[in-house]
Amino acid sequence: MDISNYSNSILPYIPFFYVIWSDDLLSTSEIDVVKTAIEEDNSLSNSDKQQLKSWLKKDSPPKNELVKSWQQLITNSNAKLIESEVYPLESFSQKVASFYCKNCTANESLQNIELHLGIQPNHYNHLFNVEVVHQAYSDRFSGSDIDAIVNAPFLQEINTFKEFLKNPVFKWDVVRDKSKARKIVLKQVQTLAAGGWGALAYPKAYGGTNNIESYASIFEQLMFVDGSLAIKFGVQFGLFGGSIQNLGRKYHHDNYLKETGETKLLGCFAMTETGHGSNVRGIKTTATYVHETQSLIIHTPGKNDNKEYIGNALDSKMASVFAQLIVGGKNKGVHAILVPLRNEKHELLPGIRIEDNGYKLGLNGVDNGKIWFNQVMVPVVNLLDKYGQIDDQGHYQSKIKNPNKRFFTMLGTLVGGRICVAKGALAGAKMSLTIAIKHALQRRQFNDSIKVQEDLLMDYPSHQLRLIPKVASSYVYHTVLQRAMHEYANSTEDKRRIETQVAGLKAIITWFATETIQECREACGGKGYLLENRIADLKNDTDIFTTFEGDNTVLLQLAAKGVLSDFKSELNAGGFVSVLKLIGGRFTDKLATINPAYSNKVDKAHLYNPKFHLHALDFRLRRLTDSAAMRIRGYIKKGIPSYQAFLKTQTHLLALGKAYSEVLAMKWFYEFTSKLDDGLYKDLLYQIGALHGLSVIRKDATWFLEHGYLSGTKSKAIRQRVERLSTELRPHINTLVDGFGIPQHSMTAPIAN
């Protein structure tokens, strides 16, 4: 065989042309792809380019003798085809060429051909008479290394907790009977308390480490065990215990916090009412102060004023009840009061009525119930009075004079629970993705020849596109929620800002989780529908996350109002007009017109650049802020009350809240990534960020096109880059889901093993 006819630059193209003509892969559009790659390859001389193009004529293909000589050239090289490499055919071609020349290097033009033609190893490995290393994925990166990077501050505690969860009491099983499921979950919660994990966020004096960030990190791990366990754990230690810690004073801490952390005192968090779900300020339950007896009378006044959907209601002995505090005939707003529910024999106390909510779509290991109070008397010391007290003379006093600010300050102390809900939902998405992807790395289905090994599901571009961008987004949201909890835990100022941030993040992340888990269920076909494979329960258990701890639609409006008020105004009717003047003054100058050259820029360096992602998302946020403020101000100028003005712009505000949250997530992720040490993992995380950022922009492409930010050409290029990034990350996808840190003993789905 004579290779003297081929230059060193042509040699790497030989395996590509052999594959192309052996399987007759080329259509007219695909020929154009190859021609473009050849033209852009600076390693080729003009004569090289002419020779290669002469082999691309559909009406005059290379003769059989030539194709056979290519096969012999490949066989004689003794090169190995390693399926798991990032560009397996290009890498293989370089090995073939290197056998005949010493200066062959990676060729981006060949990589582009491999990507654009969508050539997968099992399409061509049977054509080569060489050793094929069948690997479904690459080991270039380590899942444990990625886990260590994204969980660095809490890694030791998380790993210790994972070992603790090996206790057989946490073994997952299919349990359909809610009574049995509740007993199992209660025992699990008590086991966690005995290990000191329940009190983690409490002060050291009460059995904890005063570290709510660690608490949030282990909460995520509980979702990998069972959703019901995570929620009951959160209710007992986070909501009930958290209300005592954050809304009470030393008296309440001394009397209740340690026993709560040990589960000697089981409690519930009674805020939501049947008639007033999201509108906490409008709840009807009352707590009327009686000075003569130094007591509070807790009462449910109407049929639909009962507490609704209260977790731990059937097991608890005490409730943290949110009610309108009435002192001296005047309503002082919503406050929390500790109300005993049962005696030592677990019998209901007089005036208390509790009913089981019954079976739910999911989380049936959690004992949700309805609670009514009929003139229930409790001592006034049971008022959680950090922000509002009743003195010995029966007078109400508070350092926070403004009732609205006092209300939001009290609720702001409970933002940690909202972060945990988002973390729990994201954990459900991570586990579903891990199951679906590990299944797709084993399951083979279809091809174009009965002689060829069937394709792995993960090698289908459609499968990559439906799952890999969601893995990227999961990493972005993971780091963002860690940042949110850090901001919340370390904020000493008014928590309204972090409340606004968390409201929006909770909404977009729980919706993301719901969408992701559904996609994973479908990606696994009938196997995903089986209970044993966990996705069905994850789907049902996390569905409620979009509406509890704040309905997402309401939360996005809260986030939008925070943007419009610049985090300073409480948006009451009197102060809103002045806020609009401030906003109007800031944004009345027209936003700069987007340069046509920018809206058409499609090169890789630009589209992968974090500055582009942030600029695009910030542009959308600024435009939506400007137009929303102007619309509302326009309505108010016409004499329409501010509340009605908000209703008329509600869908606009939802878009604004979502835009704000997506900017925040992207910004925080890139800030996290920029602080990492330079190297492969930093580059990998930037690649993940690019895939997430481009996916978000692509999802709202209509808006960007309408506002002239993108041209049709650039929008198409973004779509192509999302597909390409998904393909580039394909070899590392097993490592990436391992990087979620889900312990093997929790990965019980048969299709994932």
Automatic annotation (TrEMBL):
Keyword terms of this UniProt record: FAD, Flavoprotein, Oxidoreductase
Pfam family, one: Acyl-CoA_dh_M
Residue span, Acyl-CoA oxidase C-terminal domain: 610-752
Domain Acyl-CoA oxidase C-alpha1: 412-562
Ranges for domain Acyl-CoA dehydrogenase/oxidase N-terminal: 180-259
Entry cofactors: FAD
Domain of life: Bacteria
Transmembrane intervals: none
Gene3D superfamilies from the UniProt entry: Acyl-CoA dehydrogenase/oxidase, N-terminal domain, Butyryl-CoA Dehydrogenase, subunit A, domain 2, Butyryl-CoA Dehydrogenase, subunit A, domain 3
Domain Acyl-CoA oxidase/dehydrogenase middle: 268-376
Membership in a protein family: Belongs to the acyl-CoA oxidase family.
Protein name per Swiss-Prot or TrEMBL: Acyl-CoA dehydrogenase
Lineage per the UniProt record: Bacteria, Pseudomonadati, Bacteroidota, Flavobacteriia, Flavobacteriales
